[in-house]
Amino acid sequence: MRRHLLAIALVATALASLMLLDHPVDTRDAEPPQKAPRPALSRKGATTSTWYCAAGSAGTGDATTHELVVFNPTGADVDVVISTFFARREAAAPATTETTTEPATTTSTESPTTTVVAGPSTQKVAVAGRSSLVVPLATPGASAMVEFAAVGPVVTHRLVIEGSFDEAPCATSASAVAYFPTANTETAKGASSQLWLFNPFPADVSVDVQVASEDGVRTPGQLRGLVVAGGSSRAVELGGIVQTRDQFAMALRVRGGVIVAEQSRLEPGGGGLVLTPGVPATSTRLVFADGRSGGGIGERFVVYNPGDEEASVLLQVVPFDTDLQSLPEKFDLAVPPRRYMVLDLQDQVRVPSDRPHWVRLESVNGAQVVVQRLAQLLAEGSPWALRSGVGGSVGQPVMARRWTMPWADRSAESTSTLVVVNPSTDTIARVKVSRIAAGSRAPVGSEIELAPSGGVAIELGPAGAEPAGIEIEASSPVVSERRVAAASGGDLAVIPMIGRNGEFAELPSMSHTTAVELGGG
Amino acid sequence: MQVGTGLPAVVAVVATTGGPEEIAPALEGLAAQEYGNLTVVVLDASAEQATTEKIAELLPGAFVREVFSAPSFGAVCNTVLGTVEGATFLLFCHDDTQLEPGAVHALVTEAFRANAGIVGAKLVRAEDPERLDEMGYGVDAFGFTVPLIEAGELDQSQHDASRDVFMVSTAAMLVRADLFGDLGGFTPAMTPAGEALDLCWRARVAGASVAVMPAAVARHARDSSLADSSADDRRKEVRDQARVVLTTYGPGHLLRVAPLAALLSVADLVTSTCFGHVGRSLDIIRAWGWNLLHLPSALSRRRKVQASRRVPDGDIRAAQIRGSGRIVTSYRNLRAATSRRIPDAIAAARDLPSTLQHESVLAGAVLAVILAAVFAIGSRGLLTHGVPVLRDFLPVGPPGALLREWWGGWRQEGFVVNGAAPGVLAVLGVGHFALLGGGGPARTLVLLAGLPLGALGAWRCGRDILSPRARLAATMAYVVVAVPYDAIASGRWVALVSYGVAPWILAHLARASGVAPFASSRPFHEGVVTGLIVAIAATVSAVGFVITLGMAVLIGALLALSGDVAGARRVARSGGIAIGVGFLCSLPTSLDLLARSDRWSVLWGPNDSRRPHLDELLRLSVGGDGDTLLWAAVPVVAVLVMVVGRGWRFRWGAISWSVAIAAWGAALLSYRCWPDGVRPGSGVLLAPAAAALAFAVGLGVESFHADVRGGAFGWRQAAASVVALVAAVAVVPFLQAAIDGRWGLVDGDVVAAVATLEEADDSNYRTLWLGDSDVLPMRSVPLEEGLAFAVTRGVRPGLGSVHPPRRSRAADALADTVRSALSGGQSRLGSQLVDHGVRYVVVVSSLSAGSLSDSSPMLDATRSTLAQQLDLHSLDVAPGVDVYRVADGRVTDPALGRTRRAPGSRIALNVIQLIALVAAIRAAKGRAHARSTPDAEVQR
Questions:
Q1: Which residues on neighbouring strands pair with residue A319, listed in sequence order?
Q2: B652 touches chain A (CB under 8 A)
């Protein structure tokens, strides 16, 4: 009997000991692909790279100059194949028939009318190592795809029309969604707001565009089921579709494929041109490196929440010359689902006027948002020596030690300013800036030490006659933007720098300090 | 040769290969006949002078004809065709048949009275004339003969009425001479039974009837070397039955009967295999193989038979017995065996209740019928519509390709490489032929074979040591656990294989221990049998090796701890032998598995990323849709033996519980050690636990009867009552699982959806499959975290993927190409895939086509990358499956269609495997023989 009891006890003990093993293990879940901005250079292991430049014009189109700026920071010469896709321009009218000629044409059927889509025309150019090239596209209103048999070169594109201009990196990938936090439809003469849908891929896709305005959220009939034939691009003039608004946001969703979307916006009266790539992914943290408000400069943030739950967003303005202990109070923005909220910093007394700053945002409840910053010249005599102009940026969701970008200003009177900020709250970053042109690399100034949460604006001056590129190397991750001011009084552009996938770091979380309620709307 | 006139002339034909002593009774019988017009012709193939002299002595008027070749009785008898003229009847006699006086007269009288073409005599035993031997046969639609009396039945004139039968023996067969001539005599190259069946059936086709005349009595010794069936002949009878069916039916009836016959053959094959009647299984396979090989001659013969037709098949069918003669005979044999076994059982186990063995057989038969019905109902959807392709439930190709791949080792999956192919290809290749092209049913049967095999294993687990009730309880406990149904529902074949073999391995290792109640320990033989079981399982998965090793180590350690070191040694030895035999019998896959770097991944099958929870494991469930608390009933019932058991029952109960706990622990521990890595799925480890607990249930029931029943009411009785209540609900979730007819297996076959892209006669291209390794409908190779890839020839994966070929450089190069594309920046992946012969890229995000599931970020990124390729065209196939076709749509790789010869090394390994199999089967048979000897009595 004793042996029986002993055996039963042993079995029971073994059974009970299983409970010790029954605990979840800290498994490394399959890591989602690293959060990265779009565009970004391909990860290590890739052998080719492709860039997509959607917007081919602004306004009426024919008067627009469309240029590609290619920068090859690698030491080797690179062959480039540029394919130009001809656009179909859409206003309020439904699908129309358009025929283009060269080179070959393919036919696809679209109810109720037939669309004839031209195949791309291609040209090959070579870019020498450590040099840049500006390639004007001969055909106005065309989208472009740039293919490299290497990884490293970067491409931006630039639209110029009647003294206004803007430049933006081309996209390195297409996406099934794209968000535009700011858009407007003005009735003034010369104003234009175009949505460019670029589909270089073989399959036709259908696109729905949801518009969020202060009145509500809807999908206009003419923006529902927009068919973009494979191997074509399509420009939609929003003015004829969306009621006249000075601000609305758009969420674009693609059925059965992916697309490259971009918005070109021409402010009336020569106010400026804004080129906004569609933001393919929402974020919970963002940094805007370049910032200034007051003194004739207006700075607007539009926080768009395309999700289904309210977003609680903190916006922190960090002046370059203020220590961390005396930062302005954060703005607490409650953004309802599928709506946006506008914050004009020049109207906020807590933001130091006419002093450079950078801005970081964080959605504290995890709801993902998209944000756009618009810098606009409101009065003459601004520190940027501009009469007018507007520039936009969608911010950076990550930081990195290395950034790069072409530097080839169109006008000799244009000047560039490189803004570098260190989002870290505890690490100093030492930053080296280099100018790369004609096969050589030259430092721009001396190494700069950026304190935690510090920022610096480096005046680069005119780019010079020869197209160049800029490269930033930092000892710890930073965020950077280049601001271009056309001194002829024309316009302003804010261009994010381009990093490489696999080298990005998460932005640090914002420390919780007292916030001022702004309320929802 | 001219015979007399007056009475109808009868020529008695005696064919012999024996000497004078053998033929003497037949001659004496014929000499005793008073029939006035009888002539005797002896066809002597013995070539002995003494035989001729004996004939001259006993029957001076007999004609003797020397025959120099005697391939069969019928072939010898056919020599009378053209040599005997004027005879009205031919009377064929075996040389061991002695006619009683008046027999010929009675036969002739009956032939005229019944207007019969063929008349047979009543055969009694030569050594005991009071016992009947044969009195004609009935035949079923499939050519299976059923004796109309029981052999050895006492002759009390109970059958003495002349009657129509379908067939009579050639031992004393009177045939109308003109009919015999018209039919062309016997069909040569058949067994004696086949000759009689064939002649009688053809006679019926030609309009003649067959009768048996009880007044004509003949003593039959059944020792004719020429005319009575030898053991070898009996094996060939299946062959002849199939031959007769193929040649005698008209086209309409043949179309109806042949599929049913094939189905019955498969059922017979499976049943025989399950019951260990390997010989019978081989006979069935040989029979179908022989008939397929001799199809041209069968067709020629068939034309002749149909030309002589005067009676429609409907009339012939009316004369046949209904249903399956095979089933009827099996039942009759079972009853006979039962009645025979009673005295044996009493002798072998004197302290057992005398009815134990009797009840055991009957109980087993009843349980088998019930379970077969429930399995059939629960699987009806799968049996009628086939098993969809899911994880390891892979499709099968043409039988020729299966057999070529198995024999030659040139793998058909993805890139052409030579390597070990799993044995299941050979099984299905043969099954395909056996089912006359029924590859689908063969696949279904093989996939689901684990269910009945597991149940049978549980039944045999308690053989000789448990009462029928206890064995019933153990079997039912094993049947109603969630393990096999979870495995089917999730397409995890390895778990199902584990379920099928676990109770067999447990039973044989326990038996090998020699620990009470297993008295006679024969570790070598038990090891050989276990090795064969492991080898059978290894045709699909080598999981049997691991189970054997684990159980042997655990049981051995427990026995050693309890002080029985000798028993532990025997278990260890038996386990080692089992692994060795299994290894040799499953060459070359076993060798390949051992040598390859991804052996664990191949062994365990698709990775189950789900975390096992203890509460689910205790219920023997892996969670999922069908999970319910009621699955816990079996473990609860298994507690009974620990509560009320005594002696050896308690001891083995404790061992069973230890095995179960070890299996649970292994499931939890493997997850803790390799949460994201390759590890056994919970189902694989739960099968041994379920087998052990089912055995514990049987021991508990045995304990109740032996240790509790009959005593005063106490806590033991109360505990037993509670357990009985719990046991009653154990069957509920099992029946619930059976309701949908698919055991919860999802519908919507990804491969079937993609197969719509197939083009006839064009499979020399590849398809690249991407997705989570647990979702892809084949074995895959990791590509990135959360993403795996596989390559198939054409768009269908093959069953050989259960043991995939080793990775080739070509596969690595393709993986690098895809990896590079996923790194970003690639826009012309299609042009690179063309270099690898890839025509389609399939991204699978859901287990079944038509359903959408949450997609992982990695899969989203993959889809996005593919959508951005300028030379990949997206095709609409089904939700959950994204298909892309490269722009150059006619991609082919001629290397895929090339025929290759098997390398010598591969053939050598195949030969070693076959030799090992034959040797192991012979050794196992030796064991069976040894067990039947007295020294192998079970200690009770």
A1: A357
A2: no
